[in-house]
Amino acid sequence: MKCPLLSDQTADVLLDYSAGRLEPSRVVSFETHMESCDRCMTFRMQQADLWKALDTWEPEPVSMNFNRTLWQKIDQVAASPWYIKLADSMRFGAWKPAFPLAAAALVIAAGFVFDHPAGPTRNQVATISVVSEADQVENTLEEVQLLRQFDAASKPM
């Protein structure tokens, strides 16, 4: 048998063996492997100690007035004034999830600002001024032509 500690695919064999869920046919092959593998034997002994500790562990008993005390604390928080609730919501822990989102938004904004300069470049300014001058010349010529038409219409024939 290949050592389960050296392979990710068979690592669950150790845990299943320790929990008593390993198939009987595989138990025999694993136990023969443990006779020659010190690492697996050590793991098995550590798991056995862990299971014994979990079996002997006893939680502390809950006090008789636990529910009453819990509901009193809940009622105190619910009855607290609005400004205390607001101050509690402004604590650092409440805003902690917003920091990664703010950092991402800042990075995106910085990338946009550095990618798009604030004002027009020198070539854009020259192009804009040439285009605006051409528009002015065209408008002036149209106005002169309109004035000539008025002059021609106002002369007696």
What report would you give on this structure?
- With 157 residues, the protein is an all-alpha fold.
- It has eight helices and no strands.
- The chain has helices at residues 11-19, 24-36, 38-56, 66-79, 82-89, 92-95, 98-115, 122-154.
- The longest helix is centred in the C-terminal third of the chain and has 33 residues, at 122-154.
- The model has no long low-confidence stretch (mean pLDDT 81).
Describe how the helices and strands are arranged.
Blueprint: H1 11-19, H2 24-36, H3 38-56, H4 66-79, H5 82-89, H6 92-95, H7 98-115, H8 122-154
Helix pairs in contact: 1-3, 2-3
Shape: elongated
* Quaternary form: single chain
Given helix and strand content, the structural type is: mainly alpha
Annotation field: number of helices: 8
Number of strands: 0
Q: Approximately how much beta-strand content do the residues carry?
A: under 5%
Low-confidence stretches: none
What does the main sheet amount to?
Answer: none
Q: Strand-and-helix sequence, N→C?
A: HHHHHHHH
CA-based gyration radius: 42 Å
> Can you give the helix content as a percent range?
over 70%
Span of the ends, CA to CA? 121 Å
Q: Give the averaged pLDDT, no decimals.
A: 81
Features of the shown structure:
157 residues, mainly alpha, 8 helices, elongated
Summarize the structure.
This protein is mostly helical and 157 residues long.
